[in-house]
Each structure stands twice: as C-alpha cells, then as structure tokens.
Amino acid sequence: MTDVIKNARAAEETGNPEFSNKIISGKAVSARIRAEVRKEAAGFELKSGRKPALAVIIAGDDPASRIYVRNKKNACEEVGFTSLEFALPADVSEDELLSLVRRLNADANVDGILVQLPLPRGLDEKKIINEISPDKDVDCFHPVNVGKLSIGEPGFLPCTPAGIMELIAATGTSVRGKNCLVIGRSNIVGKPVSALLLAADGTVTTAHSKTVNLKEIARNADILVAAVGRAKMIDASYIKPGAVVIDVGMNRDENGKLCGDCDFDSVYPVCGAITPVPGGVGPMTITMLLKNTLYAAESIFEKNAGR
Ligand code: GUN
C-alpha cells in the first residue's frame, strides 16, 4: 500500500468515516445503509409476519459467481432477510430454468428474484431475465424496469449505479449542473448510471471505445465514472483538478494485484475525491440489492393490501 493510501485510511479512523482525506469509503457508506435496511426489515417483519426474502438462482460452477452468491446470502442474513439459493447444474435446460423463475414469481413468500450472470453457454440470458416478474426484479434488469428508469418513473434502481450515486452524495457534492463523464456503456453500469446522473440534473456524456478525444472530454468532467474494465487506464492527465472520481473497475495489474480502471497514485493528488479499489464501489452493489429487496417486499405488501 502506498503511503498516501495508508495515511488516508488512518485518517478515516478519526474523521468522517465515509469521506476523509479525499477517499470515499464504500465500506462505511455500505455499513450505514445496511443498518438502515436492517431496521426497516424488522419493521416489515412486525407488520407482515415474515422477513423480506431474496431468491438467488445460480447455474453452473463459475468460481467468481459462487463467491458473489455466497456474499449475497451472507448480506441477507446480516440484515435479517430470508435468503433462498437455487443452485442448478451447468447443463440445466432453459425450460427448467424458466419454470423455476415462474414458480418464484408466483410464490407469495419471495420478494426478490436474482439470476446470477453470466449463465452457462446455451442459456438465453435475455429470455430468462424477461421471465422475471418486474415486481421482483431486484437487479433492475427487466426491460420494464429499465424503461421506468429511463422515463423517471419510481421503481427499482440498478444496484451498482445506485451505489455510485450514494458514494457521490457522501462527498457532499451536488450533481446538479455538473459535467459528468461516464466511461463505459454497459447495460449493467454505464447506461444506467448515465440515466441516474441525468435524473439528478447532471450534464452527462457517455464515452466508450469509439469516443474521440476522450482525454479532452475527461479533463472537463466535474464527476468522472470509470467503468471500462482496463487496469489503470485513467491517470492524472484525464482528471480535472478537484473532480470526483468513481472507479468501478475490478482488474488485476501486471503483478496480479487487484486494481481499478484508475491509476490511483497518479489520480489521487489531482482529484477532489476518489473511491479506492477494493473498498469503494464493490461493497455498494450488494447493499443496494438489499435495499431493492426491501423495496420489493414493501411494494408487494402494499399491493396485496389493496393500497
Ligand atoms: N454478475 C455480475 N454482476 C451481477 C449483478 O449485479 N447481478 C447479477 N444478476 N449477476 C451479476
């Protein structure tokens, strides 16, 4: 660890745990939100007689997916949710998977359904996601929920993008009127975070691999979200002094060490705020999944009560 990170982390111990010495702590922001979710889940249980419940479907034995699913299960237990896991073999048929989703859609004791991606080859991800009831789509991947997000209707918020908005808020920075650059246009991060920044009145540019003059555009950004998947691609020469930098990258550097899309040591002295990797965006995704599961539980409960 460099001295700069060491010093910043030491300062976190005594100062504002969420934002200190220009470092935005996803761990601390997550801890605050999880405590809120835990409290609200207890309230839900009191009025409904059951805990909010998340069903996670995993097919095959991708090691990274297994770790993600285990972390989701642990997080559910931490906030007092019921967690159901459906582990299917890699050669599960599409029909079997679709019928499991339909069964969970109809199950009054299940609030959220998540199908862990990527699915094994031969399974049509779009078809499976489209089968999830939009009311239980806690990933916010269903076209109905993506559409609602795009036109500003209330509903689920996509997990990583919603987590990014919380991290920006933790710095005390208002998005309104700011130049926001999102580098990356994936359906999971780039496009939906651009939509959320726009909804927060940012002036948003979405850059991608075909963008010309990326550095020039980046140097004009007050808020920069890097979601490219290329180790340490963004250095100080891309950064406007004082900018808020959110690093979504989760890569390995030349020594096999975990790193983001930003070259932290280069960017840190120039920026006004930055998320570390690990410990920045990472912890937020599951936290926002918990929030969405609670939202699903509350919405379904209200709907059933005829409100
Ligand atoms: N695989 C990697 N990230 C995600 C995610 O956010 N949701 C799902 N369902 N699968 C993933």
Report on the structure:
This protein is α/β, with parallel strands linked by helices and 307 residues long. The chain has two domains: 151 residues, 3-Layer(aba) Sandwich (Rossmann fold); 82 residues, Leucine Dehydrogenase, chain A, domain 1 (Rossmann fold). 44% of the residues lie in helices and 15% in strands. The chain contains eleven helices and twelve strands. It has a five-stranded parallel beta sheet. It has a three-stranded parallel beta sheet with strand order 4-3-5, sandwiched between helices. A two-stranded antiparallel ribbon has the order 1-2. A hairpin with a 2-residue loop joins β1 and β2. α3 packs across α11 and α7 packs across α11. The protein starts with a helix and ends with a helix. The model has no long low-confidence stretch (mean pLDDT 95). It binds guanine. The site of guanine has 7 residues, from β5.
